[in-house]
Amino acid sequence: MYQYDKYDQMMVDQRVAQFRDQTRRYLAGELTEDQFRPLRLANGLYIQIHAPMLRIAVPYGLMSSKQVRKVADIARRYDKGFVHFTTRTNFQLNWPKLEDVPDILAELATVQMHAIQTSGNDIRNTTTDQFAGINAEEIEDPRPWAEIIRQWSTFHPEFAYLPRKFKIAIIGSENDRAATKLHDIGLHLVKNHDGEIGFEVLVGGGLGRTPIIGEQIRPFLEKEDLLSYLEAILRVYNRLGRRDNKFKARIKITVREHGINHIRELVEAEWVQIRDQLRLDQKEIDRVKAFFTEPDYDSNAAADTSFEAKLEEDKAFARWLKQNTFEHKVPGYKAVYVSLKKHGQAPGDITSEQLEIVADLADKFSFGEIRSTHTQNLVLADVKQADLYELWQQLQAEGLATPNINTLTDIICCPGLDYCGLANATSIPLSKQIAERFDDLDHLYDLGDIKIKFSGCMNGCAHQSVGHIGILGVDKKGEEWYQFTLGGSSEADASIGERLGKAIPKEDVVDTVSHLIDAYVDLRREDESFLATVRRVGVDPFKERVYADN
Amino acid sequence: MQIIKDREIVEDNWLHLDDEAQLVAGNITVSLARWQEQHETLEHHEGGLGLRLSGDDPLEEIVPDLARFSLIVLLFPVFTDGRCYSYAKLLRERYGFKGEIRAQGDVLQDQLFYMSQCGINSFELANPNRLTNALSAFDDFSESYQATVLRPEPLYRRR
Ligand code: HEM
Ligand code: SF4
Predict the structure, then answer these.
(1) Domains, chain B, ranges and CATH?
(2) ipTM higher than threshold 0.95
(3) pLDDT in tens, A192-219
(4) A238 in ligand 2 pocket by Cβ < 6 Å?
(5) Do the beta carbons of residue A135 and residue A333 sit within 8 Å?
(6) Structurally, what CATH architecture does the domain formed by A301-397 represent?
């Protein structure tokens, strides 16, 4: 993975010093609340119901075991001993003290970590596919490009005060595990007719109040032009994006108001002016790529026979393997999910002790690297098949092997009313109840791939509008109600879910999920997935089932 | 009034004229509207001439006139309005403006670093009592990853 040189290190160290001084001035009354807010947000710091919330960046979802141990240590010493992973592969501390934040950032800097631009109206952490670099269908590893974007976007002087936040996601294969179509910019590594590799560029996707799927702005961009093209888009947006209404300030609205064709004209006109100046040097591309070379894989890994034997003799192991691992491009290896979706536990939460064990397991079995996923799980990406049984046993002992990846209980859920000052409604406790209701694994597997996404308010941090089943907390005269949507998707076939009907009271939420599932089981044809069924029959048959007994 | 110019605290010798105010000799700045209305008179102005622009003004339209100005004032109505960062950068890099570019309005210490990297070289702080403290902000970072006005080569060419 990428290693800081003296420049990268100096930049994060100077950032800590800058924020330490800003915090001091705020606490001394020299900065007003309004003046301090954008500064703290640019360092990941929200002020929440119980305490500040600090969002720490995991650039493109990649961490070393050393970093994970540091995170565990920080969570224990400055917080309540656990962290929460988010849909943008970052993680959050829910209870730090404001005065401690500069020290926390200083500790993070010692392991090449930071909270830079994890909130606020700036360019956020660039995310990617958790199987980058190891999946056989990949056209090219997107991570070096994500790192190049990280550096370009960090402290970009022109784009620190954008109309609104700006998120970029990049993938290297057709299978979209990073919700690129729902990002302000989505980048797809593609091959053109001449066999050259470049980027397809999408713009204007986003979730929140007005979910919109990104549109193609350029079918093919030469790789060397990546930064100039991004800079052109950002400059057009910085000048044109609305600043009169924060609900209309995202680039998705700029694109909608002006039309993709007009935006394309503006961007291309800007781009031709800066293209030569900002063309990436091959030397720099090579420098960054050199950090993402393949680890030292064992060429004999597939020869192992113990693995097959274990599969035969241990049904639980076989079940976990089928559900929680992913095919690796190297024979004899697998990528392994560490499930943060144990039934009855807050989705995406992990304790310091668990983090330390995951770090040890990564050292022992997966070249010391850990990845975080858009679905709020972790991944050990390079595990030899001979090691899988032992790894599974150890994960299981820690409650990290719930074999539910991509099932109904692999719920994406925001913090909701338990932690978030903007929430209308509770989300985590209801997610837990849903998971408990569907505790029977055979039933879960029979239901197949069903993505439930659950947000506590319109901001949609859990992407409910692109959930196969989306659940959104709404406030009705001070009471918690829930709006369901069906048929959304954040993948290559992205779509926005359709409203099921009027909002549902809190006590009926879990039953409503059951009704939806029962309806699906009746309606599906053979092994038709939930999403395919909804797309075929529409929401009406589901609606009838849910509202029939109300 | 004192301002920061080229990283030093200096006495300001410019007068920002309202659109209604009488023209006077000496260094003055005018709004875009006034420039467009009275440019014939202003061409013969005795003293320095400066132009005030906000993020709402069409930057490209004044490019042919730039040579007439020795100062461009960029207005930041609130410090979170980042449009004029792009204006400064374009004025310097694309339109070759060599004169003074000044930030005016809600200008605070914590934005000076970014502003200066975009080519703004003078600053009327919202709170003129904080000039001395603010001077340190130019050194908040000793490098930038990007190609900036002050460091035209991106960092990777220097690595
Ligand atoms: C308690 C802490 C949190 C607060 C105060 C918060 C606040 C917000 C706000 C205000 C928005 C709307 C922004 C907009 O519409 O432009 C938003 C969107 C979002 N948040 Fe959060 N959030 C929190 C936690 C989380 C968590 C835990 C996740 C991940 C699980 C997350 C991921 C996102 C994402 C992905 C979006 C939508 C991005 C888009 O519109 O494209 N946030 N958040
Ligand atoms: S969706 Fe709403 S309730 Fe949930 S974390 Fe985001 S802002 Fe808070």
Answers:
(1) 2-157 (3.20.20.70)
(2) yes
(3) 999 999 999 999 999 988 999 999 999 9
(4) no
(5) no
(6) Alpha-Beta Complex (3.90)
